[in-house]
Amino acid sequence: MSARVGVRLSPTPRMERIKTLLRTERLPHMWCPGCGLGILLKVFAEAVLESGIDPDKHVVVSGIGCTGRIAGYLRLDGYHVLHGRPIPFAVGLKTSRPDLEVTVISGDGDLLTIGGNHFIHAIRRNDDINVILVNNFNYGMTGGQYGATTPPGSRTLTSPYGHIEGAFNVPYLAAALGANFVARWTVLHERELKKAILEMFKVDGFALIEVISPCIIYGDMNSIPPLEMMKKFKENCVIDHDADLSKADLDPTGEKPIILGNFVRRERPSYQTLYSRIIEKARGGRRG
Ligand SMILES: Cc1ncc(C[n+]2csc(CCOP(=O)(O)OP(=O)(O)O)c2C)c(N)n1
Ligand SMILES: [Mg+2]
């Protein structure tokens, strides 16, 4: 066990600032030691504080899963909704309250397996929401079953001899569907991730960040302890903003490079922008 366990850090002004956005009465959190979600929680809280947008205007929507718990730890308006349904909830919220900055933070299973249909149609419509999709390659909360992002060959609770299905290449999928902003970072790339979140807040239209995060369950089943996985992230990551996304599929158990970057920036008008124009026009027409 590390000699640092039990060492108490004296709070820095930065930590104090972040704490203002955390529901500290709910801590300690429920995540496993070695899980990357705590880092994302901290980075997201920092980005909210630096966004220049009143925290009262930020809303976080989560589905079910370990990642889905993030909404409950943030001292922001938050909704913890049905499994697979944070995107339609967020779309309804943003359409009725365009003044809010609506961010979905949820897992790969929630957003792409049970919720995959909502994901593709929200991007097709270009709904003006932010989506942070945490890819830990499995259903972490329920014990590590495989899902739509589990890389072929992985051992999971439901593929003990190795997974034989293909996995979604998330940035490639989102780019092909027409998302206005597409990025991928790992929880080890805190600064780049925070910058990407800040950029995402400014996008009118669908903005997606895939965040790769170690999961102790997935790691254990593939004989990679979480810190080893972090090491792999560090050693195998290649930042290439202009990458050919068709080659950006992932294999955290192997030596394949993990391609990271801010890959797509488009200015397609969002559904909500077009919708408000049409409503204006209809109202103007009636008056005239
Ligand atoms: C309708 C429904 N089906 C199944 C479940 C059980 N369930 C809870 S969390 C979860 C998986 C979540 O996986 P993911 O979204 O990847 O989140 P993670 O825990 O990995 O962060 C499942 C299947 C549920 N709560 N509701
Ligand atoms: Mg998951």
In short, what is this structure?
This protein is an alpha/beta fold. Helices cover 38% and strands 16% of the residues. It has helices spanning 13-19, 37-50, 70-73, 86-96, 108-114, 116-125, 170-177, 190-202, 216-221, 226-236, 271-287; strands spanning 58-62, 77-80, 101-107, 130-135, 181-186, 207-212, 237-239, 258-265.
Topology:
Elements: H1 13-19, H2 37-50, E1 58-62, H3 70-73, E2 77-80, H4 86-96, E3 101-107, H5 108-114, H6 116-125, E4 130-135, H7 170-177, E5 181-186, H8 190-202, E6 207-212, H9 216-221, H10 226-236, E7 237-239, E8 258-265, H11 271-287
Parallel strand pairs: 1-2, 1-3, 3-4, 4-6, 5-6, 7-8
Antiparallel strand pairs: 5-8
The structure holds thiamine diphosphate and magnesium ion.
The largest β sheet comes out as: 8 strands, mixed
Q: Which band does the percent of strand residues land in?
A: 15-25%
Spatial ordering of strands, largest sheet:
2-1-3-4-6-5-8-7
How many helices does DSSP assign?
11
Superfamily (CATH H level) name: Thiamin diphosphate (ThDP)-binding fold, Pyr/PP domains
Oligomer: single chain
H/E element sequence: HHEHEHEHHEHEHEHHEEH
Count of domains: 1
Number of strands: 8
- Do you know the CATH architecture? 3-Layer(aba) Sandwich
Low-confidence stretches: none
Shape: globular
Helix content: 25-40%
Radius of gyration, in Å, reads: 19 Å
Structural class label: alpha/beta
Query: Which CATH class applies here?
Result: Alpha Beta
| CATH fold node name | Rossmann fold
Termini separation:
75 Å
Bound small molecules, by name, code or SMILES, are: thiamine diphosphate, magnesium ion
Mean pLDDT: 94
